[in-house]
Design brief:
Layout (H helix, E strand, L loop, with lengths): L3 H22 L3 H22 L10 H15 L5 H10 L12 H20 L2 H35 L10 E3 L22 E2 L6 E19 L11 E6 L6 E6 L9 E17 L6 E7 L1
Antiparallel strand pairs: 1-3, 2-7, 3-6, 3-7, 4-5, 4-6
């Protein structure tokens, strides 16, 4: 089993590795390479201490790495070429050796150090077993969550009432931006503009074809921008297409990936109409009626 000092070295190396990975992702090479080098030295200390070296290990990082490589060769480790290639850089006497690397050399050194770190961590059997067990637990938990999510979606789709507006006849004020009124009831909530009117006031009407009892209306705004350009919006209902009653008004900006939900008193209607109350564009990705 790993002793407490060995684990402390390993934990400190992992902290530096995570920070180095973030810095390399931002292409801040000098900081990343310094932290990677420190992590390598800490893992060298951990291996030497686990192999019976006395405490404290006061050698410099270059000496530690050289001693570790000697130990690795005696133990018959298959040492990765990345670690061999890094040895001259990590043991360089010049204080600014890392600063003088060009972009390509720094990136390769960062990749090599990351590989060397994973190799040295993998040479602790207890760590490797713990990693495998943790990965297995995450896999089992993720699989269970995926199954439960799938069952939830299936149950939701089976119990959710039908969308009465889906693919029903639509009329509207003139459309612009290469859109059409029927795109507001084509079942696509995200990924397209939907219906986009010309400069208003503008309106859009869905014909449910028969009179139905309506309890809820869900409106999806344009999915990429302009989430407040159609406000204020009035929602009206009619049974004959001649006289309309105001069912609700909507004044809040639409949200991406979330509909505006209008809960109504049970109302019988055939026609549902959206109308802007000022000279504004009407932009609706999808209209759903329940």
């Amino acid at each position: 089993a790993l002793t407490a000092p060995v684990r402390a070295y390993i934990d400190a190396a992992r902290v530096r590795e995570r920070s180095a990975r973030r810095l390399s992702g931002r292409r801040e090479w000098v900081g990343a390479l310094v932290l990677y080098s420190q992590a390598i030295a800490l893992l060298a200390r951990a291996h030497l201490l686990a192999g019976g070296a006395p405490q404290p290990l006061s050698e410099q990082p270059a000496q530690l790495l050289g001693t570790l490589l000697e130990l690795a060769r005696r133990e018959g480790w298959l040492i990765p070429i990345e670690l061999e290639r890094l040895h001259p850089l990590l043991c360089a006497a010049e204080w600014d050796a890392l600063d003088r690397l060009d972009e390509l050399a720094a990136e390769r050194a960062s990749d090599d150090l990351a590989v060397a770190l994973r190799f040295l961590l993998g040479k602790f059997p207890e760590l490797e077993r713990a990693e495998r067990q943790r990965e297995l637990r995450w896999f089992v938990a993720g699989s269970a969550l995926l199954v439960l999510s799938g069952l939830g979606v299936l149950l939701w789709s089976l119990t959710r009432p039908p969308n009465l507006a889906l693919k029903r006849p639509v009329s509207a004020s003139p459309a612009g931006y290469a859109t059409a009124a029927d795109e507001a009831v084509n079942g696509v909530r995200f990924g397209e503009i939907g219906y986009h009117s010309q400069a208003g006031p503008a309106w859009l009407q869905v014909d449910l074809e028969v009179e139905r009892e309506v309890r809820r209306v869900e409106l999806y705004g344009r999915g990429d921008c302009c989430l407040d350009k159609s406000l204020p919006l009035v929602i009206e209902g009619s049974s004959d297409g001649q006289s309309y009653d105001v069912l609700a008004k909507w004044n809040e900006p639409f949200e991406l990936f979330r509909p505006a939900v209008l809960r109504l008193e049970p109302t019988r209607l055939r026609y549902l109409r959206l109308r802007t109350l000022r000279k504004a564009f009407l932009m609706i990705a999808e209209v759903e009626v329940y």
